[in-house]
Structures are given as structure tokens and as C-alpha cells.
Amino acid sequence: MTTLSNVTRRGALALATGALALGLAGPAAAEVDFSGKTIEWIIPFSAGGGSDTWARFNAPLMSKYLPGNPTVVVVNEPGGGSTKGTNLFAARAKPDGLTILGTSGSTQFPYLLGDPRVRYEYKDWKIAMAAPTGGVVYTTPALGLKGPEDIGMLKGKDLVYASQGATSLDLVPLLGFKQMGFTVQHVFGFKGRGDGRLAFERGETNIDYQTSSAYIKNVQPLVDAGTAVPLFSWGVLDAAGNVVRDPTFPDLPSFPEAYQTLTGNAPSGPEYDGYVAFFTAGFPAQKMVFLPKDTPDDIVDAYQAAFEAMKADPEYQANAESVLGTYEQVTGPLAQALFDKGTTIAPELRTQVAEMLAADYGVKLGEE
Amino acid sequence: MIDTLLSAFGTLLTFQHLFYMLIGVSVGLVIGVIPGLGGIAGLSLLIPFLYGMDEITALAMLIGLVAVIPTSDTFSSVLMGIPGSSASQATVLDGFPLARQGQAARALSAAFISSMAGGIFGAIVLTGFVVIARPLILSFGSAELFMLALFGLSMVAVLAGRSLAKGLAACCVGLIIGSIGGAPATGEFRMIFGFDYLYDGIPLVIVGLGFFAIPEIADLLRKNAAISQGNALGSGWFQGLRDWWANVWLSTRCAGLGCIIGAIPGLGGSVVDWIAYGHAVQTVKKDPNFGKGDIRGVIAPESANNAMQGGALLPTMLFGIPGSGSMAVFLGGMVLLGIEPGPSMVGPDLNITYSIIWSLALANVMGAGICLALAIPISKLTQIPFQRLAPFMIVLICFAAFQATRSLADLVALLGLGVLGVLMKRFGWPRPALLIGYVLAPQAETYFYQAMQFYDWGFVTRPGVIIIAVMTLASVYFGLRNRVDDTGQAVPTAEDVANLPNAAARLPQILFAGLVAVILGVALEDSLHHSLLGQVFPLSVAIIGLVMTVILIPQLIRGEPGHAAHFDAELSSDYAGQEGIGNLWGGLAWIAGLVGLTALIGFYAALLVFFPVFLVRRAQAGLVATVIMTAGAAGVILLLAWALSLNFPSGYLQDAVDLPWPFR
């Protein structure tokens, strides 16, 4: 269990074995029995879309690997940018393991930003599993770049990015580009990253990012055809909490490496810390499964064991890549570390990000 | 390519695939018949069963469902005047008058054959088009999408009703409702008034049901009579088929229109039926009778809405961009099956693409056939006295409404908009104009802002923009010449406008126009609190709307008797001065009762109280009938809720006590 960076499939499998060997999800799980029970998995998003698909992919496998083979149903509770369903879970769920919650970056961000609609406290909950994700930033060769090493040519260029909104998951590229000192015009109102990719392909924007699987499926062909140039991956977290190269894209620099190429220095300072906080909540800790506080440890362990066991299932292996991208779902200390980092932000960093959003983009947080 | 096409077709025709497709078609038919429930609910029902199925079979099942919803939703549109889903709202305008005239069979058969033709047309276009669709879809940038939103809004010219000022004011109210929630450019939350519910805006299903279903139920409940005034179905099965054949060119044009609108990502398919309807009104020359029961008003939207589903598959499969809520769920289903959308769908995965396209055509044939067979038994519903049918309709509509966010607030919003809808119907304000404004508000605002960001004002010189602008101007021109009134008249028909000599009789409609002005004024006031980018759209719309009310109100006060602006159904409709006609508010009061009870004891318990009380007190049903009908309704709702794995909206009781499902 050396680094957290090994969140790719092979690495996490090895880690999982390690976690099991440590007895984390071992004998205690045998006492839990969900026979004849129905487990409600609250997804605070509507049907369709990433989080719903992720849950529906996992639900039948959980049913197969949880002790007693309970029925696992996905309950969509959309509304309020995912705060409504999460509030409902916080207010209603009992610590019996029969109600669980799946969150996404869109649930973490309002919490980190202090949105008035948030009536939940992450620190109350116990984590059962975390599903990391990653992404690659790319640009157009029209700006003169041949490859990631030419990133310096973007300095001073007028860049245009198709954004879903300043407080959405696209806050991460917003903070990242700002950190790198790029002049980026963020055009808001896009419905998703696919929508943004379309704007890039139409030539309306000249810088974009896609999550890893969408990048491989949709942008790699553009790169091969010479109409897109990759710049860097967002990277993954290691055990020390440093951002390192994403093993899915071993040939691409990570964000800090690209920053170093650009400026000659490693990134640091409060602005960078602010970026890392939101990056962690949006990528390495993007999707998480929670149990309410006071849930007995043996129930948490049973869940973790089920999430580990399902990884060997042929059904999991057949479709994991299309649902999860190239990353492996993790449990145990790995998940705990991602959980801690992805839901914590120093008050001064929050204030700093909020003030920047208010000054530059007119975003009023805490408004009611 | 021909090989791929043929082998895909061959795989499809095996028994297993046809069987699963039939399952999808059957579920889609049932979901489509229930007002308000559409593709999202249907697909959510099927997705749990995908686990372990093979790709092509599972896709055939999902496509079967998606394809037939715009076919079967016609039943409630034609037979009850309640749109079966958002795809067939325009069908109501002429379909329902035809049913009331005893021509339901003709309307239904024309609708089903049009649906089938539209669906097959869509599949044929896709077959040839899918390989070259990418560059075409990419040629629609934000500027062109903004112009398309304007083109959609130009249909207001057709649907503005007798008084243009009223029509435009109604459209402005729709645009205002559509701009509630986060502003696209800045994320500022507009007109939320402190309610968490309004942060996301009001969902389409609530707006559709509130403005179209609730007023119709309220209206039907006033008479204690069946919907059909004569023979329930009428003859004319073959008449409907002949009608379609006589208008096959119109049907083809509308199918093409539907296919294109569906294929362009970002426009959304929910106005396609109105655009097709508007197109029919603009182009039909021979004896137009729109709004009173013109069969072409049924053929046009029904041809378009099935073709639209085919078009909508393109951006979903090629780019992974779902054009509608149901396509989002379909995309989720594809991903669960391990199929990732992208360029490979026209490369190595072309066989999957073709099997999807041809499933679509087959499912349309299956769906139309089954609908034709079911038409006679289902139309018998129109012979039942409506007060017996009403509790089912009310409960089903509430059930559909809270699919939106699964909360009590959905029902409250439904009721609030329902009140507005009833008043608009009474005073002759065109609800279609409002709906078009509502649906296109986010598109118009977002794409205008994006186009300005990307191109500045230079966007107006893009060739695509100019072409669509010319189309829009033509549409406005032909639209104003052929205006249709959703109160059941083609304009102009001055002869049956109420003669309102004195101010007292005019007071109610003047007050309502005042209420509209107040709504617009509130929007204007709210917009002043936002940044320039956040306020410019609602502010402009509110000002235009207020100008319209300023023109309208003096017309209402001082206009000569018979002025086009005057309308009050309480004074001029069939009900005016008749015996045995209930109060305008009776139906709404019952719905309000159900919503209020839900707030107290939760939806399911409220239903168990509401049903028998309604049947005994309002419908004067016997004890046995009451028990049987209550049990039936409770059972159906329970089954649906269980299959969709949802919790009912809860009330105070649930906050205090922990109850088991379904009372939770």
C-alpha cells in the first residue's frame, strides 16, 4: 500500500487484496445478513446521466455480493443541484445499512462552497466506496502547438472554454487555467462536457477537457486526425496527497508537471491549495457511497467487502470501462483518504475562491 | 455497408428480438396512455432488466418503448383533451373537437397511421443519413441554434389566438416561467422567492399538465356527463386512413421537420408538435377549419413526433449528447450495456446503429397496429360519466407530476399553474403560446448569450443564420394570416364573440389581464436585482409583456362589443346560463383537496381518503363500486410506484412518525 496513485484497475485490485488481508472486510462481515431486505440507494440526480448510470451498474452486483443477497433499488431524488436528495438522506436515513447515498462532485461542491441549500454534513457519514475519475485537457493545433511540450505557446492567447457554470464541476478547469495564468473566456450555459466537446469540434472554443473514457473514445480520434492537441491530464493523488501523473495516460504530463513546464516552478501557494481542494472533490473523490453516522462497523465492512468482491465478476469486468472509465472503485483506507481530502477545505481557501467567483464572475454564494 | 445493413436486419427478425421488442412496445403503450408519463418513466421501468441481456436484444426493447410513446399518447389527447405526453400537446387542438363531434375513430386512425408513417420515414432518413450526419450536426453552432429557437417562437404568430396582444403577453408569461431558476450566463438564481424548489425552474411536465390537463379536467367535471356526446367512437376508421393518404405530402413534410428538429442537439423535441401544427396551419389552403376539428391538425403533429424520436437518436448515438430527458435515460441504458456513443457508432459499431434504426421502424409498425386494435375498447372510456373517471385522472396526473422531483412542491406547482390555466382558458388567453415561450426560453437566452460570446454581433452574417431568419420571417407572415384560436375558433370569427355591453360583465377579464400585468411586473422587479447578463433576458421579456397588457387593458375596458380582445367563456360558451352546470372552481377544489391532504398525511394515504370521498360525494357511486374502484386505483398506483422504486411525497405525518412504505 505505497501510493494512492494506483487507482487504476490493476493497482487497486492489488490494494484491495491488501485491504482484505488486513482484515478490514474480513470475518466481521459474516454476521451481517440482509436476507429478504430491500436496500434503497438514494441518487440525488434524475434518471439517466452519469451518477444514475453508475448506481444502476453497481446495484445488481451489490445485490449479488452483499450477505443475504438483498434487493438493491436505485431511488432517484433529483432537485436543487443534488442538494435535495442529499438533505433527505441526512434527515431520514437510519443506521441500519438499508439506506445508502451516492454523491457526486456536484454534491461536494455546494458543500465546499457553503451553498445555503446544503443541510448535510459529510463528516457525519461513513464511506463505503469511492469511484475516482480523471480527465485530459486538449487544445487546437490552430494555435501553433504540436504537443504538450508547447504549452507555453498558449500564454497570452485568447482562449475560449465551454463551461457548465462557475460553480459546477467546471470550477476545476476555471481555477486550473487561472493558476496557469491563461487568458480564458469561460462561456457558460453548456449542458455537459459532451455539449462542450461539440462546441470545440465546431471551432467555437479552442480549449476543452473530457473525462478519461470520453477522451479516449471521442478526442483521441481527433488527435490522430491532427485536429486536436493534448496538453495534460488532471492527474491522480498519491498517498502523500500530491498530484501525480495519471497512469491511464502515462505519456501525458499531469497538471503540476505542465505548470512546471510553463513557469519553471512547482505550483504552490494558497491559490494552488484552493485548486487542489476542488480538484480532489471533483476527480479523485468524484463519486462516493455513504452510510449514515452510527452505522455499525460490521455493516460498513460488509459493504466494503461486497464492493471488493464484485470486481472479479465477469459482468463487472465486461462493462466497467464504459461506466467507470479507466479507474477502479476503491474501499478501505484508500476511500477514507479520498473522502477526507475531497470534503475538506480550509475556511480561508473557501473565502478566497468565493471572493474570486464574486469578483470575476458575479457569482453570489450564500445568497437566499 | 449494404452487408451491415442486411445482417443487422436479419438479427433483428429473430423471435427473441421481436419478443423483447414487443415487451418494450407494450410497456411504452401503457406509459403513453397515462397522461404525463413519458419516455423517462418508461425507460426507468425497463433499465433494471437490462442486467445480463445481450446488446441488440436489450436495445430493441428500449427502442420499442421510446418509439411507441408518441403513438399511444394520442389516446388521451384525442379522447379527453388531455395531452398523453409532451409530444402530443398540439394533437389536442383538433383531435379533441373531432372526438366531441363523434369522429374519434377517424381522428385516432389518422393519428396512428400518421405516427407509423412518421416513424418509418424517420428510420429511412436515418439509414441514409447516419453515416454523413456528423458534419451536418456540427454545422449548427450556437448562433444557428439561437435562430432555431426564434423560428420555434415564430409559431406564436399562428397560435396567438384572436387578439395578438393577448397572444404575445401569454408568450411573455411563458418566457418568464421558463427563465425561473439559474441564469445560463451567470448562474444567478432568478425569481426563486426563497423556495428551494424554484432553483431548478419549473419542470416541463408540471407546466404541460398544469396548463393543459387541469383546465380540461375542471371543465369536464362541470357537467355530469360523458365526454362523448354521441356515439363514442363513431365510424370512420377508413375515413381516417383516407384522410392521411389525401394529406400524405403534408405528413411527409412534417415527418421531415420532426426528424431534423430531433437531430439537432440542444433544441429539444418538446415543441416539435407545435411547429408541425403551425406548419400545417400556414400551408393548408383548402377549407381550413383548424381549432374546430380539422383532421390535418391531427396528421401534422402525429407525423412529426414519431419522426422526431428517430432524429433524436442521432446526437445521442454519435456524440453522446441526449436531446431530451428520455434520450438521457436511453443513453444511460446504452452505457450500462457497455456501448459507448461516439464516432465508432458509424465505424466498427455500425451494425448496432443499424439495428437501433430498424428496431425503430419495426416498433412503429407494431405500436400503430396494437393501437388501432385497442382503439375501440379504450374509446369506451369516453362513454363513462366523467365524474366516475375524474378521480383516476386526477390521481394519475398528480402521480405523473411528482415524477419531476418527487416532492410535494411538484403538486403545489401543478395546482398553482392549473389555476392560471383555468383562468387562461376562461378568458381566451392562448395556452399554446405560453407553452412555446416556456419551452424555448432557456434555449433562446442561452444560445443568444453564447453566440454573442463566440461571434459578437457578427453572428448575424453567418449563412445559416440568414437562412433560418428568412424562414422565420416567412413563418411569421404566413402565421399571422392564418391565426388559430385554442378556444376552438379559427380567426377571425367575430360572430360568436360575447356581446359585453357593460363594464360589470367585463370586469373579470379585465382583472385577469391585470393579474398577468402583476406577474410580469414581479418578474421585472426581480430582474432589477441581477447583474446585466442575468437580467437582460427577463427584463426585456417583462417589458414587452407589459406593453402588450397596456395595449390590451384599454381594449378590454373601452372596446366595442365584439372586439377581438373580448372573451369570457362564462358568458359565451355552451355552458353559459345552462342548468346543471357546476362551478368553474369545483374541479380545482377537489385537486386542491388532494394536494392539501398530501401535505398532511403523504400522497398514498391521501389517495386512499380522496378516492372514496370523491366517489361517494361527487360521483354518487354505490358502496361496492366505491370500494372496487378505490382498491383498483390504489393497486395500480402501488404497482407503478413499486416498479419505478419511488417514495411518494410525504407530509407532516411522515415527519412525525416513521411509517412503512408506501406510506413513508
What is the topological layout?
The complex is a heterodimer of chains A (368) and B (664).
Chain A: H1 9-21, E1 38-43, H2 50-65, E2 71-76, H3 83-92, E3 99-103, H4 105-113, E4 126-131, E5 135-139, E6 158-162, H5 171-180, E7 183-187, H6 193-201, E8 207-211, H7 212-224, E9 229-233, E10 236-237, E11 243-244, H8 255-263, H9 270-282, E12 287-291, H10 297-309, H11 314-324, H12 332-342, H13 347-361
Parallel strand pairs in A: 1-2, 1-3, 6-7
Antiparallel strand pairs in A: 3-12, 4-12, 5-8, 5-9, 10-11
Helix pairs in contact in A: 2-10, 2-11, 5-9, 9-12, 9-13
Chain B: H1 2-12, H2 15-33, H3 39-46, H4 55-72, H5 74-80, H6 91-100, H7 104-129, H8 133-138, H9 142-153, H10 156-159, H11 164-178, E1 181-182, E2 189-190, H12 204-222, H13 237-246, H14 248-263, H15 272-283, H16 296-319, H17 325-336, H18 350-379, H19 386-401, H20 408-426, H21 431-455, H22 463-481, E3 484-485, E4 489-490, H23 503-527, H24 532-558, H25 569-572, H26 586-601, H27 603-618, H28 623-643, H29 652-656
Antiparallel strand pairs in B: 1-2, 3-4
Helix pairs in contact in B: 1-18, 2-3, 2-4, 2-18, 3-4, 3-17, 4-7, 4-16, 4-17, 4-18, 5-6, 5-7, 6-7, 6-16, 7-13, 7-14, 7-16, 7-18, 9-21, 9-22, 11-21, 11-23, 11-24, 12-19, 12-20, 12-21, 14-15, 14-16, 15-16, 15-22, 19-27, 20-26, 23-24, 26-27, 27-28
